[in-house]
Structure formats: structure tokens, C-alpha cells
């Protein structure tokens, strides 16, 4: 049996698949700060026979939480003489050009803990000045006195030659084995001094907490059962072993969310949908990502805490391209100073949660609004719901301000939440040159199916898919992943001057290192699959375009094809191409997959009727309609390929699907809900 667990801001999810392809799901409350307790709770609650677990895959928010809440280790930095302030200088590109009070983000390492040593490489990786080991020793003694818990080492041009960083790390481990140490060249081999240094710092900052958490989780699992295959989800959409995750925990910064995106691509292939907008609404956030022709888009231009007023903090590691906003089921509705209604980004979280939970929450949330308008039923909560308390909170906090009824106020909360989510969907599609009508919206998470049909009508999307196990779909996606590692090497060469045999040597070296990496994880070479990309640009440009290139030996014909593909992709991304301009490669990128045997998902057979699946008729409050009697169905009893016309509601454990007058719904052969717009 294979089990996957995913820690979210409100709930910890579990999905299991047995030997016959049967799927089971469950949820329990997330338990900060002891997140491993929530994992054990949900395993116990699911009733899984722990002795039969052969594979365990885990996604976690521990890393992103440690960064956003500033709960990492006391971290120091050792860098090249003259570059102590690179974290402070950062970049000159201000996100808010007209903000005269703009301040750059505060570095995670204070200046007194940033020390310089004498050493120097040039841009080719040639040694200009040898490393001064005595100065490194002085740094170590100083950091000991200051109570440092983790050290980042980032030297100039170490992406070309990591020798001095390796010597420094070795010296630190010999003189101070207790401290955690990160070399920038072990995390990324791309250029960009500021981004690379910040990534090394953030990895060091979270490493002690990540190591402690993984060790605790591993020890707790061992007390329950002996599981040989234990993996953790990475931000690039693949998995890695527990031990490897402790070395580079920054690769888990988006560990949980990306699993759902990858799962959407896998499911899309199963049902014949190659172009997908994956849309995940949880208790705290809404996340979306665009999948084109079955390809999950991965980038190393990732930032945390970046918005239209803050430059954020760059992380130069491969992360699935995601747009994320602070809107989910627990998002709080409030009135701003201008008197306008807002929803999020503040969240009631798991504790105290929405007013409906009866656990002390007093602020109205999206969940409360969906409950008051009849989209959710009090009977399906794990708590005794006091509907009068929910109505009173919405009326007092929102309705009275606008002089409207509690139901109208609740509908307003839903509309604002939908508007926020619609903007996120536009950012990932329209703003990047894609027409949403060419894509299928695949909605999951606890709130995905409730909001997606309304958003599809707004966007003009013709089809919505609510997948099997939709409330815990990110965990489902983990069961479908392979081991994955991305190897990105800065390699600046003009295409006109590039000799095929020269670039072949670079590809072969990267792939040889990848095979060694997989061998250490117990993966045979014949099960490793390589995908190659070249980050290319026009000569003199700053930005690059990622171009897929063929495996195998390069030739002049392969070079020519890569250039042609670059022109096409550049035009698609930036609306123009310069076919007479010189082109150059900036980075070589190899994605290596260690293929893991996947569970086979069985088709379902149901002989029940729609009448048997119907639970009740319930009054639901709709815009411009008021209260409308609406049929409610049980998803677990729906027959396959029987059409339901809207308005209608389909309920399942921990999720609800709401469709409207212009839509119809049916269950496909795999148990996915398919929603389409009715023909006029």
C-alpha cells in the first residue's frame, strides 16, 4: 500500500492506494508547531493498516512557514572580501516605482553576522587569490561566540569553480561539526550573485528546523511500522529521500502545493486533457498554475513575500510556476479604512477557525458565507454548527455596515473572494498570453469545486474537472510522482561560436553527476530519464527563454533547430522575434527523473440511479434569484455518465461542488466530475 500525506495551513490530508488500485482519503486538523502529530493523527483516523505501507510520500509547509514567520535558525554568512553587503544592496528593480517610502527587504542575516574572507575566482573559474584559511578559522571562532546555529558560504563565481567553498565547508565541519553549513554551489550552479547568496542563506536558515522535523517524523513513523521507501515532495514536482531533503530543505519551499499541480498533469493525460489550469483552494490560500501540452512549467525565478509593493526574497532553485493569493475557506472578511469589503489575506486558520467551527472564531470567513447561503450544509461539519452565530457575525461585521441582509452580505463575501481568485487565474493565463478558453480548469482542494464553476463562467472556460479525491488531491498527486532532480549550470556561449563537441561534454558531465546522485538514492541507471533544456536569449538581452532540446549528440542541425525553436518561443512569450540577431545560451538545464512504479487507477462501475444519489432539496441563495430549491447529490453514489443540469450541488467528504443554471455535470469512468457549459 502507498500512502501520501500533505500538511496544509488548516488540514493535514491523506490518500492511500492499495494493490488493487482502490483509493481512500481522509483529513485531520493540522497541528502546529508539532506538525508530525497531525500526520500520525490522519494515518490513525484513516484506519490504514500501517504494517502494510510499502511507500510513504510527504508534503510539508514547514519550510515556507519557517521563512514567513521568521522562525529559522540564527544564521551567519561567509563571503568573498568586498561582497559583505550583497544581501543589502540586492537589486535596483523596484516593484513600486512611485513609492517614495519604498524600503528594500531586510536581509535574513544581520550585518554583524556577515563576514568576509580573502579569496577570489574570475568569471571563468580561474583562481586569482587562494583561500585564506586563517580568516575562515577567525570567522568560525567569532560565530561560536555569537551563538550561531547555521552558516551559509557564498563566494564570487563559485558556480564556475566551487573549490574554495568546498574547502571552507570542510574546514567548518572539522572545527565545528555541530553547526549546520550550506555552500551556495551545493544548492545552485547558476550565476546571479545576490540571488545565489540569498538562496544559500535561506537554506541555512531553515536547515536546523527542517532536520529536526524530518527526524521527528521519521522516528514517529518507525514506531508505527518499518517503511523502506520514504520520500518528501520537492518544489520542482518530484520527490527525494528523507536524507537528501535534510541537505537542501530549501527545495521543499513549495512542497505541498506543487504536488497537486503535477497530479493535474498526470490526470490530464489519463482523461485526454493536455492543456489545464490547475486550481487549488485550501483553507488559507488559493493557488493556480498553467499546464500546456502536458508540461508543468518550472522556473528558478521564484520569490517569497513578493507583491506589488515589496521586492521579496529570491530563491534560485527549481519551483513549479505558481500564482498564490491569500484567499481560502478560512479567509476573513473585513471592512477597510475606505469602507470597502475585503476578503483575506488574513485567515482564521485551523484554530480558532471560521465562526461555524464553534472553536472561538468571531470573524466571518468565506466558509461561513458559503454556509449561510446554503452552499454548505451544517450536517457535513465535524463540529456542532450554530447557524445563528454565523448569521450574527456576518450581519454585525459586514451586513450592518452596508445596510443589507446577512444573506446578501454573505453573497458579497463570496463574490469578493471569487474576484480575488479570478485575478489569480488571469495572472497565470491571460497576462502570460494564453486564452483561458483553450484550457480545462481542474479544481481541487477543499474549496476548489465550490468556487471553480462560477469562475469558469466568468473566464469563458468550457470545461471544469473536479478530480477524484479532490479535497486531498495534492496528496494524490504525490502518489503519481517520480524521483526528480534538476541540474542547472550557467554556461554562457554564443551559438555562432559553439562547437557541438564542446557542449556535448557539458551535457555528459551533468548527466554523469545526475546518475551518481540517483545511485546514492538506490535508483538504477536504466530507470533514469533525462530531459534537456537550454536557457537562451538574444545577444545583449537580460531575460532568457527556456528551450527544450533533444537528447543525444549535438550537430550543426541540432544547433539550428534549437535556434529556430528559441525564435518561436520568444515570439510566443514576448510577441516579437529577431531572426537576424545573434543568440546565446546562458544556462544548461537537465531534468532527471528516477522512474518509480505508479499505482494503477481503476475505472469505477456504478449501477445506482440519480434518484438513489439524491440526498435532498435545499434552499440555496443565488445572485439575482434569491432562495432557490436546489437538488443535492451524494458524489459517492452518482452513476457514471448520467447528466445533471444546474443549479445543483454535489457533496462529498470535505468538499462540495456547486453548478449554476448554464451548466451541466456528470461523472466520468474514473470517478471525476466533469462540468460543461450547456449549449444555448
Automatic annotation (TrEMBL):
Domain Acetophenone carboxylase-like C-terminal as annotated: residue spans: 499-670
UniProt-listed InterPro entries: ACX-like_C, ATPase_NBD, Hydant_A_N, Hydantoinase_A, Oxoprolinase-like
Domain Hydantoinase A/oxoprolinase: 196-486
One Pfam family of this chain: Hydant_A_N
SUPFAM superfamilies documented for this protein: Actin-like ATPase domain
Domain Hydantoinase/oxoprolinase N-terminal span(s) in chain numbering: 2-174
Matching PANTHER family: 5-OXOPROLINASE, 5-OXOPROLINASE RELATED
Name recorded for this polypeptide: Hydantoinase/oxoprolinase family protein
Amino acid at each position: 500500500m502507498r500512502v501520501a500525506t500533505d500538511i496544509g495551513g488548516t488540514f493535514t490530508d491523506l490518500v492511500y492506494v492499495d494493490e488493487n488500485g482502490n483509493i481512500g482519503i481522509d483529513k485531520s486538523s493540522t497541528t502546529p508547531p508539532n506538525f508530525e502529530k497531525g500526520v500520525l493523527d490522519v494515518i490513525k483516523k484513516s484506519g490504514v493498516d500501517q504494517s502494510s505501507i510499502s511507500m510513504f510520500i510527504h508534503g510539508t509547509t514547514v519550510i515556507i512557514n519557517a521563512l514567513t514567520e521568521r522562525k529559522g535558525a540564527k544564521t551567519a554568512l561567509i563571503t568573498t572580501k568586498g561582497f559583505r553587503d550583497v544581501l543589502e544592496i540586492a537589486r535596483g528593480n523596484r516593484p513600486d516605482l512611485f513609492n517614495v517610502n519604498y524600503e528594500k527587504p531586510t536581509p535574513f542575516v544581520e550585518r554583524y553576522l556577515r563576514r568576509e574572507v580573502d579569496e577570489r575566482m574570475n568569471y571563468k573559474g580561474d583562481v586569482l587569490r587562494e583561500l585564506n584559511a586563517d580568516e575562515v578559522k577567525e570567522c568560525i571562532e567569532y560565530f561560536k561566540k555569537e551563538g550561531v546555529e547555521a552558516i551559509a558560504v557564498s563566494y564570487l563565481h563559485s558556480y564556475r569553480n566551487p573549490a574554495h567553498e568546498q574547502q571552507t565547508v570542510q574546514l567548518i565541519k572539522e572545527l565545528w561539526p555541530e553547526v549546520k553549513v550550506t555552500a551556495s554551489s551545493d544548492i545552485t550552479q547558476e550565476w546571479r550573485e545576490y540571488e545565489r547568496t540569498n538562496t544559500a542563506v535561506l537554506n541555512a536558515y531553515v536547515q536546523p528546523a527542517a532536520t529536526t522535523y524530518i527526524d521527528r517524523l521519521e522516528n514517529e513513523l518507525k514506531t508505527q511500522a518499518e517503511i523502506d521507501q520514504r520520500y518528501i515532495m520537492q518544489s520542482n514536482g518530484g520527490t527525494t529521500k528523507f536524507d537528501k531533503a535534510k541537505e537542501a530543505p530549501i527545495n521543499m519551499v513549495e512542497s505541498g502545493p506543487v504536488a497537486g499541480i503535477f497530479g493535474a498533469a498526470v490526470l490530464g493525460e489519463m482523461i485526454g486533457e493536455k492543456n489545464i489550469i490547475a486550481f487549488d483552494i485550501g483553507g488559507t490560500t488559493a493557488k493556480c498554475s498553467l499546464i500546456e501540452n502536458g508540461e508543468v512549467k518550472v522556473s528558478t525565478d521564484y520569490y517569497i513575500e513578493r507583491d506589488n509593493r515589496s521586492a521579496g526574497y529570491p530563491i534560485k532553485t527549481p519551483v513549479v510556476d505558481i500564482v498564490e493569493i491569500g484567499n481560502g475557506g478560512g479567509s476573513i472578511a473585513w471592512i477597510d479604512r475606505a469602507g470597502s469589503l475585503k476578503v483575506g489575506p488574513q485567515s482564521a486558520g485551523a484554530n480558532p477557525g471560521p465562526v461555524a467551527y464553534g472553536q472561538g472564531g468571531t470573524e466571518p470567513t468565506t466558509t461561513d458565507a458559503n454556509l449561510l447561503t446554503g452552499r454548505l450544509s451544517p450536517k457535513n461539519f465535524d463540529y456542532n454548527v450554530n447557524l445563528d452565530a454565523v448569521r450574527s457575525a456576518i450581519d454585525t461585521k459586514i451586513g450592518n455596515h452596508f445596510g443589507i441582509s446577512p444573506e446578501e452580505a454573505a453573497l458579497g463575501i463570496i463574490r469578493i473572494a471569487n474576484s480575488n481568485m479570478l485575478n489569480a487565474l488571469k495572472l497565470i493565463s491571460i497576462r502570460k498570453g494564453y486564452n483561458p478558453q483553450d484550457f480545462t480548469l481542474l479544481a481541487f482542494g477543499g474549496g476548489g469545486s465550490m468556487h471553480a464553476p462560477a469562475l469558469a463562467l466568468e473566464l469563458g472556460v468550457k470545461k471544469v474537472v473536479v478530480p477524484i479525491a479532490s479535497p486531498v488531491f495534492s496528496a494524490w498527486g504525490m502518489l503519481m510522482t517520480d524521483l526528480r532532480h534538476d541540474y542547472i549550470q550557467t554556461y554562457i556561449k554564443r551559438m555562432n561560436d559553439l562547437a557541438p563537441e564542446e557542449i556535448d561534454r557539458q551535457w555528459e558531465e551533468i548527466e554523469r553527476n545526475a546518475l551518481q546522485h540517483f545511485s546514492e538514492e538506490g535508483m538504477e541507471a536504466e530507470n533514469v530519464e533525462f530531459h534537456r533544456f537550454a536557457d537562451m536569449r538574444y545577444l545583449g538581452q537580460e531575460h532568457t527563454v527556456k528551450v527544450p532540446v533533444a537528447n543525444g549528440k549535438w550537430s550543426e542541425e541540432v544547433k539550428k533547430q534549437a535556434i529556430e525553436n528559441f525564435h518561436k518561443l520568444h515570439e510566443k512569450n514576448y510577441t516579437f522575434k529577431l531572426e537576424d540577431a545573434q543568440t546565446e545560451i546562458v544556462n544548461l538545464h537537465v531534468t532527471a527523473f528516477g522512474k518509480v512504479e505508479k499505482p494503477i487507477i481503476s475505472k469505477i462501475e456504478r449501477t445506482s440511479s440519480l434518484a438513489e444519489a439524491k440526498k435532498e432539496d435545499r434552499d440555496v441563495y443565488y445572485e439575482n434569484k434569491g432562495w432557490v430549491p436546489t437538488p443535492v447529490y451524494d458524489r459517492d453514489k452518482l452513476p457514471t455518465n448520467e447528466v445533471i443540469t444546474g443549479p445543483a450541488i454535489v457533496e462529498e467528504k470535505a468538499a462540495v461542488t456547486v453548478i449554476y443554471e448554464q451548466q451541466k455535470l456528470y461523472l466520468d469512468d474514473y470517478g471525476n466530475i466533469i462540468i460543461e457549459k450547456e449549449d444555448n
